[in-house]
Each structure stands twice: as structure tokens, then as C-alpha cells.
């Protein structure tokens, strides 16, 4: 008991309101209205953004239904350095432990943890807090795939609308070279983005090493030029040293009488009525658990699915929207034939490298926290000053590098040639090889990806981490995974098959990435510190040995799941149109990462906010 009281004292010192009663606008089932204008499924970044913006109109009644609960002032969520603990506490799990993927055939049949936030705020409550954007070309590719209004210039106002940006200090600009473009940033959005008061000075050598290889420093990745190496803000309230996440949108709306949020409840399915060939969403069916009463709630205007790239396709399939083979396998009557539901899963498969410095640069790194004395000092600094290493989740320096800059011209041309030599259906999931719409859609995506990779306008690889290595993340993946229901039971998590590296083009790019990493460590800048690559070690030398190392060690996901209800023409396997309305319905929309036809080269949280801000305006225009 003494230890517990001591812990509460520390928490209270860091978060003075942590032990007070919550003031959230939560409703219980018996407090629900008979109907709402809008019922939003999912209280993550997309759902809370849309709910906030729609409820700005006092004449509109909005309900959010979320499967998780509020994290409140939980230090594991609030303190940036505790992202791993936050994940443990606030993620979806299987009944017997972690939520695991299906066996990865191209990765030795390994399984991998599925990273998805189960809390109000969704993944933004547990993520690494990077608040970057993709390059202009990433979003222009969405538009070119047949989605008017979804290019970079269309989205930029919405990126800015979500953000309140705090510039770097003059000292940070002078000592670390952090620059920014004021015109690219917002000044009054719910999400605070900033650079920590404390940053490790040694990271500047990573910039110098990449510069030595001809990789330029971008002034500000937020202005559409997220290429080369650059500093990125975090989703961080720098005054208080805490995470800024989607709950900030909720906090703006919570005092409104027309905004309700129901937590710890799961939506089973969307309810429909039918007139002619069109289905109208009339509401949703939901409950608090497998043994709890089942309820229904009416939506007089729209139902909006914002449950994320893994749960949104599950709800669609349980509602009878999807491919016949998927639905028939679980006895679900098909209402609308949409084979693209749960198809097109994309992410950024990532290999992790390491180098040791025999003469490390001064300034330290996050690894210093492994030393008990240094860790204690860092914690004291955080409690007293809201600064120091505990304000750093995973860092602020990013390298997003185009294909022509990570390999020679001959290798690049051979890689691009192999893209066009492939038949589009060869490496798709077996069920998709007989679906002409899915094949045609994938062919359109492949063509778009090839165009992006051929230039210096879009990144093929992310190089993240400090001078001792880090993540090598494939940004333009040709593999496509699936999200399909496990059963007709709404409390069963869906089956996630990332299918990472199922297309050998991705493995070829991973080999190029490892060779680039070794070249980076061989620069004069890093050799001055005695850099020695240890992972993969020198025994991993041939292309096939590198492939085997990737198969055995890489992650299939960087928690950037997207694409499973793609915004594409229905003839291309799309699920929603450019207004985010589900094909075959009059008033069902999807607003989350699942609508992205191609995952952009970035960490996707700020993109999800921008998508949702734009979606809110689309929905308002239809009122």
C-alpha cells in the first residue's frame, strides 16, 4: 500500500488533475436519445474530428460509439516516452493474449502483433506521436486515380485546420538547424504540434551523413516537400510535456448538448432499409459485450464508419457489404457486392538495423535511459520542468528518400522494369485473382506507384533513427493484404493478413535499403565515430542472405494500416466514392485510413486528421 500511495503522489505531481473525477460528455445506454442525425462508429482521430465539426451546428445531434474507454490522465498515455506501456494498456487483444496477425507466408510463416488503439482517441493514444505529412505527389496520386478534390492543394487547408503549431526556438534553429515554413502550418487547430524543449544534439550527425550522400535537408516536410532529411514536430503539448491526441477534438465538443459519446460499446452492424437498388442506413445495432443486451439506435441523416482500417471493413462485412465468398463463409446475407471491402490492406513493412559507435558523439541518446542513474535524472527533469528525454517518444528526425537516391541508375532501371514485367494478378490473394475489378484497381495502383518511384518526387524508403541505425521502412509497397471477418460474432477480431513481402518487388527494395544503410554508415561523418554495422552483421552479404535476414527479422507493419475500403471507382474495386459514400448506399460513409487508395510515404496520423476535416465539410455540404 505504501508503494501504491507513493506512485499516486508522483502521478499527482506530474498531472495535478489525474485523481479528480472526469468531466467527459459520456452517456449511458439509458440516456441515449431515440435517434441522432449522425451516428459515428469509432471514437478515434477520424470519428472525433467529424463529431466535433458536425456538432458545431447546434441543430444537429451527433452520437459517437466507441469500443474503448477514456484514458484520462493515465501517465502511460500522456508521457511521450511511455508509448510502449500505453500500447500494452490500450490496444485490441485476443481472448488469450495479444492480437496476432495471420501467419506471414513470405516471412517464414511468422505471426506479428497487430497494433490498433482501443481507447477514445484510437491509435493517437498509443502511437509514436510523429506529426509529419507525405510529399505533394503522394496525395496528387490519389486525385489521379479518379478522386477529384483529393490532391495536395485540396488537403493542405485541412492539414492546417487540425493543427496548432509551435515553432522551434531560436536556439534550436541555431544549434540544430531546425527550420520551418509558417505558411504550411495551422495556428488554431485542436492538435498541438511542436518540437521538444530538449533534443539530443547528436542527431545532427545523421543529417550530415545523409547530406554527404547527396540527400538534401528539406526546410519543412509539412509544406509538400517531405523528401530528403528533415525535422518533424510531434503531436505534443510542449508547455505541459504531454501527448496531444484526438481527445483534444472531444474536449472542444464535450460541453455541447447535441454531442454524445457512448464508450465501451461495440457496433455489431449497420441497419438498412432498401428502396429499389439503393440501401439507406437507418442506424446501428450495438451492445456492451457478448452477454449484454443488444440495442439499436436510429440515424436520421447518416451513419459514418470511422473505426479504422481494421475494424471498419469488419463492420461492413458483418452488415452484408463485401465479397460473396467472404460473407457466405460465415452465413451472412450479401446486401451489396463489394469485393474491395477488406482488400487492398497496405502498410510500411520495416526492417530494423543497428550500428555501434566505438567513439560515440557527445550528447547522448535515448538508449541512455537504460542507465538507472541517468533515467532517474531524466524523470526528475520531466516532473519538475516538463522537459528532458521523457518528452521524446521516438524522435523528430526523418529521412524519406526517393528510389533514385538510394541506389544506382542500373539497379533502379532493373527494379522499374520488373514492375512492368509482372502480371497484375500474380501476387494478389487467391480470391482476388478472379475478381476483375480488384485486378484492374491493382493495375492502376501499380502504374501510379511506378510513376512515383521513377522520380525524385516521392519517397521509396524511410530511414528513421539516430546515428546508430534504426528503421528501414518500405514506403511504396506492392504487396496487398486482407482484413476479413473471423466469424459472424461481432466480438471476434477480424483476421489480419498483412501479406508483407508477398510481392518480391518489396523484398528487392528491402535489399536496396540494407545496402543503402551500410553505405550511410560508411560515410566519413559516421566513420569519424567508428561506426560498425552489427545488424545485419557482415555474415549477411549476398542478396539472398539479406532477403533471408529480412524474412526472419522484419516487421510486416509500422502501424500505418490503410486502404481496406478504398476510395476508387467501383470498377477498380473501390468501396467509397470521392465523397466517401459507400457504393450502393444513400447515406453510409467511411471516414478513416481505410479510404486511402495508396498509403502515403509518411506516418499517417496527421493525414487521417486532414481526411476527417475534409470529410466533415463534405458532409456539411450535403445537409
Automatic annotation (TrEMBL):
<dbReference type="InterPro" id="IPR007867">
    <property type="entry name" value="GMC_OxRtase_C"/>
</dbReference>
<keyword id="KW-0274">FAD</keyword>
<feature type="binding site">
    <location>
        <position position="267"/>
    </location>
    <ligand>
        <name>FAD</name>
    </ligand>
</feature>
<dbReference type="GO" id="GO:0044550">
    <property type="term" value="P:secondary metabolite biosynthetic process"/>
</dbReference>
<dbReference type="Pfam" id="PF05199">
    <property type="entry name" value="GMC_oxred_C"/>
</dbReference>
<protein>
    <submittedName>
        <fullName>Glucose-methanol-choline oxidoreductase-like protein</fullName>
    </submittedName>
</protein>
<dbReference type="GO" id="GO:0016614">
    <property type="term" value="F:oxidoreductase activity, acting on CH-OH group of donors"/>
</dbReference>
<dbReference type="InterPro" id="IPR000172">
    <property type="entry name" value="GMC_OxRdtase_N"/>
</dbReference>
<dbReference type="InterPro" id="IPR012132">
    <property type="entry name" value="GMC_OxRdtase"/>
</dbReference>
<dbReference type="InterPro" id="IPR036188">
    <property type="entry name" value="FAD/NAD-bd_sf"/>
</dbReference>
<comment type="similarity">
    <text>Belongs to the GMC oxidoreductase family.</text>
</comment>
<feature type="active site" description="Proton acceptor">
    <location>
        <position position="603"/>
    </location>
</feature>
<keyword id="KW-0732">Signal</keyword>
<feature type="signal peptide">
    <location>
        <begin position="1"/>
        <end position="20"/>
    </location>
</feature>
<feature type="active site" description="Proton donor">
    <location>
        <position position="560"/>
    </location>
</feature>
<dbReference type="Pfam" id="PF00732">
    <property type="entry name" value="GMC_oxred_N"/>
</dbReference>
<dbReference type="GO" id="GO:0050660">
    <property type="term" value="F:flavin adenine dinucleotide binding"/>
</dbReference>
<feature type="domain" description="Glucose-methanol-choline oxidoreductase N-terminal">
    <location>
        <begin position="308"/>
        <end position="322"/>
    </location>
</feature>
<keyword id="KW-0285">Flavoprotein</keyword>
<feature type="domain" description="Glucose-methanol-choline oxidoreductase N-terminal">
    <location>
        <begin position="117"/>
        <end position="140"/>
    </location>
</feature>
Amino acid at each position: 500500500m505504501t508503494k501504491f500511495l507513493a506512485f499516486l503522489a508522483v502521478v499527482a505531481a506530474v498531472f495535478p488533475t489525474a485523481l479528480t473525477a472526469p468531466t467527459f460528455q459520456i452517456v449511458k445506454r439509458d440516456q441515449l436519445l431515440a435517434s441522432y442525425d449522425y451516428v459515428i462508429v469509432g471514437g478515434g482521430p477520424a470519428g472525433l474530428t467529424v463529431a466535433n465539426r458536425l456538432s458545431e451546428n447546434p441543430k444537429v445531434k451527433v452520437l459517437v460509439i466507441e469500443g474503448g474507454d477514456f484514458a484520462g490522465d493515465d501517465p502511460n498515455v500522456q508521457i511521450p516516452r511511455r508509448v510502449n506501456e500505453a500500447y500494452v494498456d490500450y490496444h485490441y487483444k485476443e481472448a488469450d493474449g495479444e492480437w496476432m496477425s495471420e501467419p506471414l507466408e513470405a516471412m517464414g510463416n511468422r505471426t506479428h502483433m497487430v497494433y490498433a488503439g482501443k481507447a477514445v482517441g484510437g491509435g493517437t493514444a498509443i502511437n509514436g506521436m510523429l506529426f509529419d505529412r507525405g510529399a505533394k505527389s503522394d496525395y496528387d496520386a490519389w486525385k489521379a486515380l479518379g478522386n477529384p478534390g483529393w490532391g495536395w492543394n485540396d488537403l493542405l487547408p485541412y492539414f492546417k485546420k487540425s493543427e496548432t503549431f509551435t515553432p522551434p526556438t531560436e536556439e534550436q534553429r541555431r544549434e540544430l538547424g531546425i527550420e520551418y515554413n509558417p505558411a504550411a502550418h495551422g495556428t488554431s487547430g485542436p492538435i498541438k504540434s511542436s518540437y521538444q524543449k530538449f533534443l539530443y544534439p547528436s542527431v545532427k550527425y545523421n543529417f550530415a551523413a545523409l547530406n554527404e550522400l547527396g540527400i538534401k535537408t528539406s526546410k519543412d516536410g509539412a509544406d509538400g516537400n517531405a523528401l530528403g532529411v528533415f525535422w518533424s514536430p510531434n503531436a505534443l503539448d510542449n508547455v505541459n510535456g504531454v501527448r496531444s491526441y484526438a481527445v483534444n477534438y472531444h474536449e472542444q465538443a464535450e460541453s455541447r448538448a447535441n454531442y454524445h459519446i457512448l464508450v465501451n460499446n461495440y457496433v455489431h452492424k449497420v441497419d438498412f432499409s432498401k428502396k429499389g437498388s439503393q440501401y439507406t442506413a437507418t442506424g446501428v445495432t450495438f451492445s456492451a459485450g457478448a452477454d449484454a443486451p443488444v440495442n439499436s439506435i436510429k440515424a436520421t441523416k447518416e451513419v459514418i464508419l470511422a473505426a479504422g482500417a481494421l475494424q471498419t471493413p469488419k463492420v461492413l462485412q458483418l452488415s452484408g457489404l463485401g465479397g460473396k465468398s467472404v460473407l457466405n463463409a460465415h452465413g451472412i446475407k450479401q446486401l451489396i457486392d463489394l469485393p474491395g471491402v477488406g482488400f487492398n490492406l497496405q502498410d510500411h513493412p520495416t526492417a530494423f538495423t543497428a550500428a555501434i559507435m566505438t567513439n560515440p558523439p557527445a550528447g547522448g541518446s535515448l538508449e541512455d535511459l537504460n542507465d538507472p542513474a541517468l533515467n532517474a535524472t531524466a524523470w526528475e527533469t520531466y516532473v519538475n520542468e516538463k522537459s528532458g528525454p521523457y518528452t521524446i517518444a521516438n524522435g523528430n528526425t526523418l529521412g524519406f528518400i526517393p528510389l533514385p537516391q538510394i541506389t544506382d541508375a542500373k539497379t533502379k532501371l532493373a527494379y522499374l522494369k520488373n514492375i512492368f514485367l509482372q502480371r497484375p494478378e500474380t501476387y494478389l490473394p487467391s480470391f482476388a485473382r478472379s475478381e476483375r475489378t480488384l485486378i484492374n484497381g491493382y493495375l492502376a495502383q501499380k502504374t501510379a506507384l511506378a510513376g512515383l518511384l521513377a522520380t525524385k518526387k516521392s519517397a521509396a524508403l524511410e530511414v528513421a533513427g539516430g546515428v546508430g541505425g534504426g528503421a528501414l521502412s518500405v514506403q511504396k509497397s506492392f504487396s496487398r493484404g486482407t482484413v476479413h471477418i473471423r466469424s459472424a460474432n461481432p466480438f471476434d477480431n477480424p483476421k489480419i493478413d498483412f501479406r508483407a513481402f508477398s510481392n518480391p518487388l518489396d523484398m528487392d527494395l528491402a535489399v536496396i535499403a540494407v545496402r543503402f544503410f551500410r553505405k550511410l554508415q560508411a560515410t566519413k561523418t559516421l566513420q569519424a565515430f567508428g561506426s560498425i554495422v552489427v545488424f545485419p552483421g557482415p555474415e549477411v552479404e549476398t542478396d539472398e542472405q539479406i532477403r533471408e535476414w529480412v524474412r526472419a527479422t522484419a516487421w510486416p507493419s509500422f502501424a500505418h494500416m490503410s486502404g481496406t475500403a478504398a476510395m476508387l471507382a467501383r470498377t477498380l474495386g473501390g468501396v467509397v466514392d470521392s465523397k466517401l459514400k459507400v457504393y450502393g448506399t444513400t447515406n453510409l460513409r467511411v471516414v478513416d485510413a481505410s479510404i486511402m487508395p495508396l498509403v502515403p510515404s509518411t506516418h499517417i496520423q496527421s493525414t487521417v486528421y486532414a481526411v476527417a476535416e475534409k470529410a466533415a465539410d463534405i458532409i456539411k455540404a450535403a445537409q
